Amino acid sequence: MTESAEFKVKEITKGSAFGAYRALMYGDLGLGKIVWAELLFTLIGGLGGAAGLFLRMKLYPTLFKTCGRKVVFGKNVTIRHPHKIALGAGVVLDDNCVVDAKGADNRGIVLGDRVYVGRNTIIYCKNGDIEIGENVSFSANCIVFSSNQLTMKKNSVVAAFVYLLSGGEYDLADATPFALQKGTCTKGPLEIGEGCWLGAGAKILDGASLGDRCVIGAGAVVNQPVPADAIAVGVPARVVKTRKAAE
Ligand SMILES: CC(C)(COP(=O)(O)OP(=O)(O)OC[C@H]1O[C@@H](n2cnc3c(N)ncnc32)[C@H](O)[C@@H]1OP(=O)(O)O)[C@@H](O)C(=O)NCCC(=O)NCCS
């Protein structure tokens, strides 16, 4: 077995089952707060109807690093490492979302005022940070991942099934099988400018930042930075136009 394979096996098998669960869900959060979070998730996390929405709106804010007024938590929302998550006023997390700020020494996740996170969308860190500006809207089934720094400025619209990746690159020069590599690398932080529109199913890869007011066509795979006001489409994405509004 290679050195890194041994490392991975040891990581997975060491400690108790509770220790593994705690590391996955809460990191260094104190035991009292873990018990409180577990009670809330178990008793009201899956509660349907207005009663569920009301109770989660009143009680879930106690879990977070900070939480603004009138935040809506849908049914079966999964929150991991809540003490590293800051939610602005009027944020909506729809049913079945996951927000996970996992990491040993990261700052975590910030969702600005009125950020909308559609059904089944997953926003998660592996020791990276994610900052989403105000009024950004994610439709259903998006994935937002960071093992580095992912920043979205305000007022963007993200259609369904979009994938945003900051990090997540395996080392192609390393002979170790990808599943056994210690982690992934990154080309640099991912930044999405203000007022962008990302079409359905677009994929924005590590290091491929977008300038302000960009439009990314449905199904595009963006692997290079796109300048402000550009309309980029295709695989790999190419700029086909500049927005008239910019002229
Ligand atoms: C990119 C988009 C906004 C169109 O912009 P547009 O300025 O009207 O562009 P056009 O339709 O004139 O297309 C320009 C060129 O790009 C091509 N193109 C447009 N959208 C494309 C796409 N998604 N993938 C590949 N090529 C595309 C067109 O075929 C055209 O090519 P041509 O010049 O060789 O004929 C639109 O096609 C799109 O993808 N919208 C996203 C819709 C969506 O996901 N909505 C979800 C709800 S939020």
Task: Produce the secondary structure layout.
Elements: H1 3-13, H2 17-25, H3 31-44, H4 49-59, E1 66-67, E2 72-73, E3 78-80, E4 85-87, E5 92-93, E6 98-100, E7 109-111, E8 116-117, E9 122-125, E10 129-132, E11 137-138, E12 143-146, E13 149-152, E14 157-158, E15 163-166, E16 190-192, E17 197-198, E18 203-204, E19 215-216, E20 221-222, E21 230-233, E22 238-242
Parallel strand pairs: 1-4, 2-5, 3-6, 4-7, 5-8, 6-9, 7-10, 8-11, 9-12, 10-13, 11-14, 12-15, 13-16, 14-17, 15-18, 17-19, 18-20, 19-21
Antiparallel strand pairs: 21-22
The protein binds coenzyme A (COA).
Name the CATH superfamily classification. Answer: Hexapeptide repeat proteins
What is the architecture at the second tier of CATH? Answer: 3 Solenoid
Round the Cα radius of gyration to an integer and report it: 19 Å
What characterizes the major β-sheet?
Answer: 9 strands, mixed
Number of helices: 4
Kindly state the mean pLDDT as a whole number?
A: 93
Strand order of the biggest β-sheet:
2-5-8-11-14-17-19-21-22
Shape call: globular
Structural class: alpha/beta
The total number of structural domains is: 1
Q: Level of helix content?
A: 10-25%
CATH topology: UDP N-Acetylglucosamine Acyltransferase, domain 1
**Range of strand content:** 25-35%
Distance between the termini: 60 Å
